[in-house]
Target: Fructose-1,6-bisphosphatase class 1
Amino acid sequence: MHNHISLNQFISQENTKHSSIDYDLAGLLNQVAISCKRISNLVNRSGLMHILGAAGTENVQGEGQKKLDIISNNVMVKDLEWTGYLSGMVSEEVEEIISIPNQYSKGKYLLLFDPLDGSSNIDINVSVGTIFSVLHTPNGVTHPKDEHFLQPGTQQVCAGFCVYGPTTMLVLTIGHGVNGFTLDRDIGDFILTHPNMTVPEDTSEFAINMSNQRFWEAPVQRYIQECLQGKEGPRSKNFNMRWVASMVAEVYRILTRGGIFMYPRDQKDPSKPGRLRLMYEANPMSFIIEQAGGLSSTGYEPILAVKPTHIHQRVPVIIGSKNEVSQVISYHKGN
Ligand code: AHG
Ligand code: MN
Ligand code: MN
Model:
């Protein structure tokens, strides 16, 4: 006898508890989990399979793609296009909407994903991950266009991410809290190991890429300056700093022991209001963090309230422990 709850069983139990979860969503999530297992295996064996390093191509963001960015994207597309649960997909690695081939039936959901987050870390054996967001296909739509994907984060049905670290973990919200599952490689299943994950309200740990400091706006300059002043400064406590450069790892850390993560608006490239992408990075992570009791903001408005204008648009991100994010928001007032 065992008392393990698998991802499959968990989703089925949620299904009976909440009418918002139907069999299509359950099927979709199980299929996404299969993709994550496949990507986990590829990441794990990447050196042996000679799939490390750059692909020599650029994505729509003008960023160099790694071989594993493209491979992970193809895994997701091939695993999900035939299922009948989706009417379209959006991926960080593909400029246009990914439509469902004609021979397959169209479903009631839209899937948006970052197939491999933190891929600059892949060659140095640091955690990477997959981030995803699920939206409803608007009523009556079978061949969604960009405008059908451009729904604010508040409309998300479900969001999750998988982090390929020392263990492979899947973190999921369907709008009723946040749960974490560990991949048991021996049986090939995700097992509920971290039920009801919560973000502590207070923290003394911040994460930001300090090399961009000269480009930040005044409110973020002030906040970080005060953190660095520690016990002797206005905050009267010492802060610790972390920067993994994989959002999946940072958010996982915040779900475990609290913290604040920032990729704020800066003046580095005025055409880019931030580094992270709204639809498949900021929105799903904000949904998860808020479901765990944390907070997310651009500094000026809640991330989940941002009205999207482009499927690949960027947005400033300030997320994590409630009281610290509130502090940063208060510094933005009147800026
Ligand atoms: P991606 O690999 O999907 O392009 O995303 C990387 C993101 C995010 O995971 C991380 O927080 C940030 O970019 C790292 O940025 P820096 O390289 O500026 O540190
Ligand atoms: Mn990413
Ligand atoms: Mn990516």
